[in-house]
Amino acid sequence: DAGVTQSPTHLIKTRGQQVTLRCSPKSGHDTVSWYQQALGQGPQFIFQYYEEEERQRGNFPDRFSGHQFPNYSSELNVNALLLGDSALYLCASSSDPVHMYFGPGTRLTVT
Amino acid sequence: GESVGLHLPTLSVQEGDNSIINCAYSNSASDYFIWYKQESGKGPQFIIDIRSNMDKRQGQRVTVLLNKTVKHLSLQIAATQPGDSAVYFCAEILSGGYNKLIFGAGTRLAVHP
């Protein structure tokens, strides 16, 4: 079992651009959540997908959007990138309400 | 790899000693509390969870204590090893908040030989 995988590992974008990050959940997991982790801080919940629908959303602007596919994989899209969007973006998957398994993250740098 | 927790509080311990990492939380309506370990360049790794109706739970070399009166959570690591060096986060799940983790401030654990 490969666990949760994310791509790409690192990404550099320019302000105003758009970015798409990808996540494949752990085998057997149907729920995918995305978190943003700024340097030196704990992860912040962005949103969560279940059965291809956004089930919960954190306090993030609608520049942040996502999608879940029938195979449970997911994408995070961020439009109109700001310098403050530079962070580690983490994907987590689960099959129950409590136990989350995180991927290694995608390091996004906005210049 | 990138550094996690550059400016976080640090707990330094000697190899073989016991470690205690503390966390304060503010929500009274949490169902679960969870400890995560994050090594540099990796995502958080689940360590142990405790339901809000419990006071103590033990795992392999780890014990979590929950004091709801003062809203305090602690993680005890027995016989700390160099491989335990990482940033540790506590997180909570509010009632009805399926899989929505609310993370606290982390603590860096540095284990010295």
From the alpha carbons, calculate the radius of gyration of chain B and give it in angstroms.
14 Å
- Radius of gyration of chain A, CA atoms, in whole angstroms: 13 Å
Total helical elements of chain B: 0
Helix/strand/pairing category of chain A: mainly beta
Amount of beta strand of chain A: over 45%
Describe the protein in words.
- The complex is a heterodimer of chains A (about 110) and B (about 110).
- Helix content of chain A is about 0%, strand content about 50%.
- With about 110 residues, chain A is an all-beta fold.
- Chain A starts with a strand and ends with a strand.
- The model of chain A has no long low-confidence stretch (mean pLDDT about 95).
- Chain B is mainly beta and about 110 residues long.
- Chain B is built from no helices and 10 strands.
- In chain B, a hairpin with a 6-residue loop joins strand 3 and strand 4.
- The interface between A and B is medium-sized, with 30 and 30 residues.
What's the layout of helices and strands?
The complex is a heterodimer of chains A (111) and B (113).
Chain A lengths: L4 E3 L2 E4 L5 E6 L6 E7 L6 E7 L2 E5 L6 E5 L5 E5 L8 E8 L6 E2 L3 E5 L1
Parallel strand pairs in A: 2-11
Antiparallel strand pairs in A: 1-3, 3-8, 4-5, 4-9, 5-6, 7-8, 9-10, 9-11
Chain B lengths: L9 E5 L4 E6 L5 E9 L6 E7 L4 E3 L3 E6 L4 E6 L8 E9 L6 E3 L3 E6 L1
Parallel strand pairs in B: 1-10
Antiparallel strand pairs in B: 2-7, 3-4, 3-8, 5-6, 6-7, 8-9, 8-10
What is this structure, in a nutshell?
With 111 residues, chain A is mainly beta. Chain A has strands at residues 5-7, 10-13, 19-24, 31-37, 44-50, 53-57, 64-68, 74-78, 87-94, 101-102, 106-110.
Note the main attributes of this structure.
heterodimer, A: 111 residues, 7-stranded mixed sheet, 4-stranded antiparallel sheet, 11 strands, globular, B: 113 residues, 6-stranded mixed sheet, disordered N terminus
